[in-house]
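Example record for the data management plan.
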Amino acid sequence: MTFAQHLPALQVVVPLVTAPLTVLLRDRRAAYGLLLLAAWASFAIAIALWQQASAAGVVSYAIGSWAPPWGIEYRVDRLSAMVLVLVSGMAAVVLPATRASIEAELPREQHYLFYTMFALCLAGLLGITITGDAFNIFVFLEISSLSTYVLIAMGRERRALVAAYQYLIMGTIGATFIVIGIGLLYLQTGTLNLVDMGHRLRDIGGHRPVLAALAFLTVGLSLKLALFPLHQWLPNAYAYAPSVVAAFLAATATKVAVYALLRFYFSVFGESAVFNRLPMQEVMLMLALGGMFIASAVACFQDNLKRLFAYSSVSQIGYIVLGISFDSVTGLTASIIHLFNHAFAKGAIFLLLGGVAATLGGVTLDRVRGMGRRMPLTAFGITVGGLSLIGIPGTAGFVTKWYLVLAALQKGQWWLAFLIVLSSLIAVVYVWRFVEAAYFRAPAGGGEVREAPWSMLVPAWVLIGAVLYFGLDTSFTVGQGSLAAAALLRASP
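Corresponding structural encoding:
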């Protein structure tokens, strides 16, 4: 086999091997350099796999030369290739900001352990995306979750420990539901290969154990992706974790959980089982609307900007789930492209908030008074990210809202199109609270304050550039997203 044929295995192996090496080095500079190299190598591999999947349709890699479905298979199609590019790309962009961030937030003797956990989290997220084996999804989910608990607990406030403990409890419940669902599917089909499982479920139909497995997996994955009202772990986790951890998790972790939900729904169960045998369409619609309105309303009353934008994430997840509930190519396209659009905006916002915390000593609305004059690049970057969350034309967020409205109109649901626009107006309120404090209030203290460290500012502005670019040029996000959505619906058993 050629080197290019081993890229699926290297996609996971590179960051996974990096984790123990950073422990052995026990040097923060060497660990940082090694992890940065691994992240950029993973990004290059993901781009190569995306090109292969675009040309061949599907890339299949048999672990240990055991042909699937007997052996474990790594499988890359258009959707998984896009998510691989997203996760590895966000790691490659966020990591340059870590040194300046954790210097202010973590003791130096913990830095190499931070890089170890980051590498494990990256390997787990990439593994969930690329594996074609149901039990491996659970294994990689646990790898990413366990490392995430530690990363959150490393926050400099004592409340970070409480946030990590809350996430551990909720995450454990979610993982239990997921493994029960996978076990029920294995008992019914006798296989763990996702493609083979989908084929065998065609003959089984709507047996109660299969529907029970669907219910267990839905609840478990909904906990992981923080679907309202199962989102209680997310606000504290994002608010008290180290800033770069919040930026990386907001951009990737919930997106990978959405990917896993899409994979089970459409590749394993099939849309007929999900949307015809159970009232999932109505349930998902109501939960999505609850997140869109209630989480946005709660965000309007937050004084801590990290918590404000954390509740905003719950609201944005509602938009993603709303697209899934339409059960159409247009709706699924909206959900898939919002994985990218929200990742760019929220990753940039949390990176910039990390710079605010390091420079001003906090991220409350009182702390950021007059920030527009003292930290103009940082303040303007947060504002642009907020405009994307609202869905202002010219930003990537507008593209998502446009396709959601189109999906609603295709279904003849004018009232739902109105609710999508109305929920966006609530986002105007919480974004305006930051704009008012930063641009229309006097500075909180005397003296000039410099911009955030350039090592944090430049990666954040790379993401802000992506927010603006993909708001104008949708050839990649919409082009690839629509092809992935169509392939998902065709693949439904």
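Summary line stored alongside the record: Strands lie at 59-62, 73-76.
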